[in-house]
Specification:
The structure holds two protein chains of two kinds. By secondary structure, chain A is an alpha+beta fold. In chain A, 18% of the residues lie in helices and 50% in strands. Chain A has an eight-stranded antiparallel β-barrel with strand order 1-2-3-4-6-7-8-9. In chain A, strand 8 and strand 9 form a beta hairpin. Chain A is elongated, with a radius of gyration of 36 Å. About 4% of the residues of chain A have low confidence. Chain B is mainly β. Chain B contains three helices and 15 strands. Chain B has an eight-stranded antiparallel β-barrel with strand order 8-9-10-11-12-13-14-15. A five-stranded antiparallel sheet of chain B has the order 6-5-4-1-7. In chain B, strands 2-3 form a two-stranded antiparallel ribbon. In chain B, a hairpin with a 6-residue loop joins strand 14 and strand 15. The chains are: A alpha+beta, B mainly beta. Chains A and B meet through strand 6 and strand 7 of A and strand 4, strand 5 and strand 9 of B.
Chain lengths: 227, 250
């Protein structure tokens, strides 16, 4: 310490000397004052500050309003046969009654009966047979209740109505679509559920000449996790 | 031998890691002291589910989880059941202070940090679907990322935008905002009508709109935008779009 002070005070350059000097002058009285204040002239302070602080870190409550699910099933693509469909859904439960859903699915159209009968005629190329869709929907839990399996087991379940808008990409084009469906949610535990869904995807198509509304009905089963 | 390593990891280590993560998550729960005459525990998170157990005044319960406005509780005897926010919030926490359970109000709407929403509307006569997420930089300014899909008879457009949104009156229930942003637009002409290539262009947009606070953590959002597309051809294109939708905040 002393070596450092000496360096500050006795250095030959006048600016350094004065800065070091004034720095020491400024610091020393404060140090002695604060030391005296802590001891209160050697006596204990009369009033002790209440230092017994309360524990304020509350554990967070685990909120599980989101539900993610994977599903598989069959999709009846109008005029193009019934085909396997796979997809995923993300639900956000707004209240015990309503939930928002974003979902996406993939299927692949098989041949129309015309293509099968004619032998070689192809209405769509290989890439154009891909059927992908996504939707934004609003769901309403219709019949909440319990189901009983055996004597001593009760499981929560809901029947829900769902509808929304989205896009269907089929035959190389994007189509605005609406969807309407009915689903059943069976909760194995509070966080894990089985879904059974019937969903109609409607969109306008002029693929076979005239412009018409096509109904593409999907039956699926899925497993979901609340988080 | 080397090929079995990933299997070993998946079969033995991953479940172990998951189990340990689950065990760690089950350490502490928030405690509540029942100060109402009693509360009823129901079998499920909904008003229709039957009550199975009553917890009397003075008893302590743990809050295991929350779903929408319902809380799953566990008594010291190990009985578990669900109770509604309204019934639970009348009680005291483990230090005897009133419970502060998160029931978002107008103040929280003004001070929101994250928001996200789904909107539908029109883009030059075509149906428009849009999803966005936003982060508040301050009470008046937020940054948003938006994806939109316009579905027309002649073509469809996919748009991705980064927007800056300014709201001069965050404390208003109907809060107007102005937005400015830039992004890209990808146009796919309809295959059955025209023989034309897909193209991707840069766009810039300005707009105005309003958020209406609906209650809890939900809001209605409507906006109008004027979009300029910088094409590689001689003329730039100008589009107008409007949309309306529901959004929620955190």
């Amino acid at each position: 310490m002393e070596i450092r002070y000496r360096f500050l005070l006795l250095k030959h350059r006048p600016i350094r000397r004065s800065v070091g000097f004034w720095l020491l002058m400024a610091l020393l009285p404060w140090q002695s004052l604060s030391a005296a204040g802590g001891m209160e002239n050697g006596r204990e302070p009369v009033i002790l500050p209440d230092l017994d602080r309360r524990e304020i870190v509350e554990p967070e409550i685990d909120t599980e309003d989101f539900e993610i699910s994977l599903f598989a099933g069959v999709l009846s693509i109008e005029d193009f046969g019934t085909n396997p469909v796979y997809g995923a859904r993300l639900d956000y439960h707004l209240s015990e009654d309503f939930f928002l859903q974003a979902d996406a699915g993939y299927s692949r159209a098989s041949k129309t009966s015309y293509e099968l009968l004619s032998g070689s005629a192809q209405l769509l190329t290989d890439d154009e047979r891909d059927f992908t869709y996504y939707n934004f929907s609003l769901g309403y839990n219709l019949l909440p209740g319990e189901v009983f399996i055996g004597k001593g087991r009760a499981f929560n379940s809901h029947l829900y109505l769902i509808g929304g808008v989205g896009n269907v990409t089929f035959a190389g084009d994007d189509h605005f679509s609406t969807n309407l469906g009915l689903g059943y949610r069976f909760l194995f535990t509070d966080a894990f559920a089985l879904h059974l869904d019937v969903r109609d995807h409607l969109f306008n198509s002029d693929l076979l000449g005239e412009d018409k509304t096509t109904h593409n009905i999907e039956l699926s089963a899925g497993l979901s996790l609340f988080f | 031998m080397a090929s079995t390593r990933p299997h070993f990891f998946l079969i033995y280590l991953l479940p172990l890691w998951l189990l340990s993560a689950l065990a760690a998550a089950e350490e502490r729960y928030r405690e509540v002291e029942i100060s109402a005459p009693y509360i009823e525990l129901q079998t499920g998170p909904g008003r229709a589910f039957p009550a199975i157990h009553a917890v009397g005044r003075g008893e302590r319960v743990e809050i295991l989880k929350r779903r929408t406005d319902w809380f799953k509780l566990r008594t010291h005897k190990g009985v578990e059941g669900w109770v509604h926010l309204d019934q639970l919030s009348e009680n005291l926490d483990h230090q005897g202070e009133p419970l502060h359970l998160d029931a978002p109000r107008m103040d929280d709407f003004s001070r929101r940090r994250w928001e996200a929403g789904l909107l539908g509307g029109y883009f030059e006569g075509a149906a428009l679907l849009s999803a966005y997420g936003g982060f508040s930089l301050s009470q008046n300014l937020s940054a948003e990322l938006a994806f939109s899909h316009a579905l027309g008879n002649v073509s469809s457009q996919l748009m991705a935008d980064i927007n800056l949104v300014a709201q001069p009156f965050p404390e208003w229930r109907i809060s107007p905002f102005f937005t400015i942003g830039t992004g890209i637009i990808h146009t796919r002409p309809r295959s059955t009508l025209v023989q034309s290539e897909d193209r991707t262009d840069q766009t810039a947009n300005v707009g105005l709109g309003a958020r209406l606070y609906l209650g809890r953590r939900f809001m209605l959002r409507g906006e109008y935008k004027n979009r300029l597309v910088f094409t590689s051809r001689d003329d730039n294109e100008e589009y107008s779009e409007w949309k309306l939708g529901i959004a929620f905040f955190f």
